[in-house]
Design brief:
Helices cover about 30% and strands about 20% of the residues. The chain is built from 19 helices and 22 strands.
């Protein structure tokens, strides 16, 4: 029988796992001589089969899918052949037919044989808990791969909404293999049935330290994950590309999303944007760890930050970000077209590298002749004027002198998508303000918009204006969906399910630099964007604390601080290298004239310094501009004013005659010696060309030859 053959094949995958983990059940008899019943008497074998469901997950953000949309393009033109008319039937990179069905085969194999697997033979209770959870995971994973098939291959063919051939058992040579595609709704029902089974069998979420439900299991399927996936499946099933978009289907989708929101903590504030690689963010419902490294940053950091700048967001996407008042840029009173990166939605600054952006001690320069423009540093510039920042870690540096890494993981399901799924479905089913499901589409969008821009909390005039019309509110929801889910692989599928045009003129910007040597910048605290260094800091203290913007109330605030114990009687220094600003070939010096420092003390080993001096770098030599040999004061800002000087580096020297010193904050006041201005010209970069028949992913041609009942998508040859 074919299933026995398949079982023997999978042993090649399972055997290394057995050797790695050890097993008390291994028999000396060769595996190839064991019967199917004997094989399934070992729990490790069953775990190995189930693990196939996790091993085949595409745990990585599909940035290349963004290249098919108006969100981004690759740095290299020939990487985007699919969007430029080169999408062919054979060698189709989007298709997932083989991967999904092969994985479903293993999951079916597991579910047919797992009932008697001896997980914990010494403990009947633990044995049953493990078996129950693993069966739930199998249902969850099968639903996931069925969903991928439906997403990729579902559509309207010859006037009928079709999905994929449903297979819920291990097929043998005696079974009918020439299977037709089931209807779209039949596929939806099968997926939902599997998810409902998973919900009954799995923990709602993984939290705490319990061996079965603790946070160490977060990569496994969960009940809440199943509920979130139900909401996604129902939303797509209500969309115009896959149904008649009747009110009852939108209601179904809204109810599923509302249930998932309630199950995951209810309608609440979402965690603010920070490091996207935060495994403790429980707004993430289902995640998969991938690796610890800096590959994402190597691929996507700008060249000036030692990256390759591979993903270039479009001007189309940049223009979709509102102004800081929440209004679209063409309706905002605070948007300035001559300074387009000022007063923008905070997501713009967190998601996009732009000309003049400051990150990890480096200014991004995409203007003509800048290090990040085409033909710039290492010839790796941006084609659009932008680089992707969103998925990059705030903890990674690619500087060869200070290279750092961070744990990476992929988020399959999260509350942001849930909120958006609910808002879209509820608006279509009930309108913007109906709260019959416990909250309204408007309520949800308030949470999303205020998380994105805290200034809008309590007052979001544009949102309220759009909520007077379901059609207008739909446009707002879809734009928010585009922004919130950017670079996560949603945009292409969203445009397809909504029957939106896939052909776009991708736009970018060219920027020309002009410098006015007779005009200086605005005085500000230069420390906030400066690179800080020292000759010594105690291992339990933080050098980065000196310019993090904290406003002390006393010299012993108990906050992170710089400290140099034990440095009794020793001169120490802290230095700021001021950030180079964008003035082309013109020197980027600052005019500096004041320092403010708030010293730390614990009254013991850390004391206020007895002697202090301030130096600036001038022509490669440190030059003193101020000193105090009489001692500084606690619990206040110690101000040092001096004759304005031009420099790129400032250093403060200090010592305590008796003990060591500490710093809570150090401000350096100054301004740019010259002002750089820019002229912006918006240009067409790329034309995306999709034929009508490319709206749906083609079925594999070989499958249509083998399975005559499968209907080939019209147009594909």
């Amino acid at each position: 029988m074919k299933n026995i053959t398949d079982m023997k094949k999978i042993l090649l995958y399972i055997l290394p796992m057995i050797l790695l983990y050890g097993c008390d059940f291994i028999e000396p008899r060769p595996l190839t001589e064991q019967t199917t019943d004997q094989i399934w008497s070992h729990a490790t074998y069953g775990e190995g089969v189930l693990t196939q469901g996790y091993a085949k997950l595409d745990a990585g953000y599909p940035l290349w899918m963004e290249y098919l949309t108006d969100n981004a393009i690759p740095q290299t033109v020939n990487e985007n052949i699919l969007a430029l008319g080169g999408w062919m039937l054979e060698g189709n990179p989007i298709g997932s037919w083989d991967l999904c069905y092969n994985t479903i085969k293993y999951l079916n194999m597991y579910m047919e044989n797992e009932a008697n697997l001896p997980y914990r033979v010494e403990d009947a209770e633990r044995d049953e808990i493990t078996r129950t959870h693993r069966r739930g995971e199998a249902f969850f994973l099968r639903a996931w791969y069925q969903w991928i098939l439906l997403r990729d291959y579902g559509g309207k063919v010859n006037g009928e909404y079709l999905g994929f051939p449903i297979v819920t058992k291990v097929l043998t040579q005696d079974d009918e293999l020439d299977l037709p595609r089931n209807t779209y709704e039949e596929c939806v029902e099968q997926i939902i049935q599997d998810l409902d089974s998973a919900i009954l069998l799995l923990p709602a979420q993984y939290d705490g330290e319990d061996i079965y439900t603790g946070s160490q299991n977060r990569g496994r399927g969960s009940g809440n994950g199943a509920k979130a996936l139900k909401a996604r499946v129902y939303l797509n099933a209500a969309s115009p590309a896959y149904s008649d978009s009747s009110v009852d289907k939108w209601q179904r989708a809204a109810k599923a999303a509302a249930e998932a929101i309630e199950a995951t903590g209810g309608l609440r504030d979402l965690k603010p944007y920070g490091n996207f690689n935060d495994p403790l963010n429980f707004d993430y419902i289902w995640i998969q760890p991938t690796h610890t490294g800096n590959y994402t940053e190597v691929d996507n950091y700008p060249p000036s930050m030692y990256g390759s700048g591979r993903t270039n967001p479009t001007q189309n996407l940049v223009d979709a970000f509102p102004a800081s008042d929440g209004y679209p840029i063409d309706k905002s009173e605070v948007f300035d077209a001559t300074n387009p990166y000022k007063n923008r939605d905070p997501r713009f600054y967190r998601f996009i590298f732009y000309n003049g952006d400051y990150y990890n001690g480096t200014y991004v320069s995409t203007y003509e002749g800048g290090s990040d423009a085409p033909g710039g540093l290492r010839q790796e510039g941006t084609r659009t004027g932008y680089f992707m920042k969103k998925m990059t870690s705030t903890k990674v540096s690619l500087d060869p002198n200070n290279t750092t890494t961070d744990i990476k993981f992929y988020v399959f399901l999260h509350k942001t998508e849930l909120y958006l799924n609910f808002a879209e479905a509820a608006n279509e089913a009930f309108g913007p303000t109906d709260s019959s499901l416990g909250f309204s589409a408007l309520d949800v969008m308030k949470k999303l918009r205020s998380r994105a821009n805290p200034d809008l909390e309590g007052s979001d005039p544009y949102l309220e204006e759009q909520a007077t019309s379901a059609d207008n509110f739909k446009k707002l929801i879809l734009n928010e969906r585009r922004l919130e889910l950017a670079f996560e692989g949603f945009r292409f599928w969203d445009m397809r399910r909504l029957n939106e045009n896939l052909n776009h003129t991708v736009k970018g910007v060219t920027i020309k630099l002009t410098v006015n040597p007779n005009e200086s910048g605005i005085t500000s605290n230069l420390a906030r964007n400066s690179k800080v260094s020292t000759d010594y800091v105690a291992s339990w203290n933080s050098l980065d604390a000196v310019n993090n913007g904290y406003e002390p109330t006393s010299s012993w605030d108990g906050v992170p601080q710089y400290g140099n114990w034990n440095s009794s009687g020793i001169w120490r220094y802290v230095q700021y290298d001021l950030p180079a600003y964008l003035v082309g070939s013109v020197s980027s010096e600052y005019i500096v004239d004041k320092s403010e420092i708030y010293w730390a003390t614990d009254g013991g080993g850390i004391l206020i310094p007895d002697s202090v001096s301030i130096e600036i770098m001038e022509n490669g030599i440190w030059k003193e501009v101020w000193h105090n040999w009489n001692g500084e004061s606690a619990d206040q800002w110690n101000v040092a004013s001096f004759t304005p000087v031009k420099t790129n580096s400032v250093r403060i020297n200090f010592k305590s005659n008796e003990e060591s010193c500490g710093i809570l904050q150090w401000k350096v006041w100054g301004k740019q010696s010259r002002v750089a201005t820019f002229d912006y010209k918006y240009v067409d970069v790329e034309e995306h060309t999709f034929k009508d028949y490319m709206r749906y992913v083609p079925l594999p041609y070989r499958e249509t030859l083998i399975m005559s009942n499968l209907k080939q998508n019209d147009g594909w040859k």
